[in-house]
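We were asked to recover a plausible sequence for a given structure. The inputs and outputs are reproduced exactly as logged, with field labels preserved.

PROBLEM: sequence recovery
POSITIONS: 213
GIVEN STRUCTURE:
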């Protein structure tokens, strides 16, 4: 049904301007605005079009046109490298303190030192837990493993085995010792700590390419 013309409301000048301002305030118009990079690219495109125009091309030599084109292309590439390169978001990085169910942000060197102090004091339980965490932290610092947040000792052992197949059995035994002490409350021994320490020492010097070779 067509509305009679008398029912159509025609705004006056002030009201029409207010309606227009309200409409343009909609976020979709802001999202549609070109970025600074779009504006620069547009201006460069216009500059190149004018430069290679038949009228201007007769006044500017071919060598000059090539040099200017190379400069513009180089500037665009530099801009893409500097501002267009994707950066890894800090928000999605694994927190450094998330290690085997504990909020511990110490480095591998610090954890090894703490483990040795506990071992000298005869606290084999604490020494065993700390040394396995040092083992895991050291591999994380070298970007050799990438366990998911909250990964267990066995999950870390599987990742280590994929990188260093020759260490599969020792690192699994180290993970079992960690779980026995940490979760099952089985007392650790000097022998089991020495095994974990020896495994950690070997892994800290191994390189994946040397294992492959």
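RECOVERED SEQUENCE:
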């Amino acid at each position: 049904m067509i509305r009679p013309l008398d029912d159509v409301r025609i705004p006056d000048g002030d009201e029409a301007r207010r309606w227009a301002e309200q409409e343009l305030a909609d976020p979709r118009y802001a999202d549609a605005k070109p970025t600074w990079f779009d504006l620069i690219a547009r201006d460069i495109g216009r500059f190149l079009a004018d430069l290679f125009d038949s009228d201007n091309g007769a006044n500017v030599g071919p060598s000059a046109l090539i040099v200017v084109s190379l400069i513009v292309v180089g500037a665009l590439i530099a801009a893409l490298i500097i501002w267009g390169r994707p950066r890894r978001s800090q928000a999605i990085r694994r927190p450094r303190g998330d290690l085997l169910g504990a909020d511990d942000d110490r480095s591998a060197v610090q954890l090894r030192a703490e483990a040795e102090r506990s071992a000298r004091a005869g606290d084999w339980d604490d020494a065993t837990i700390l040394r396995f965490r040092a083992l895991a932290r050291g591999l994380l610092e070298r970007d050799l493993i990438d366990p998911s947040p909250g990964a267990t000792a066995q999950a870390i052992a599987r990742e280590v085995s994929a990188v260093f197949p020759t260490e599969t059995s020792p690192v699994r035994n180290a993970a079992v010792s960690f779980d026995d002490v940490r979760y099952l409350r089985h007392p650790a021994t000097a022998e089991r700590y020495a095994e974990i320490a020896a495994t950690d020492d070997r892994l800290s010097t191994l390189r994946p390419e040397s294992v492959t070779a």
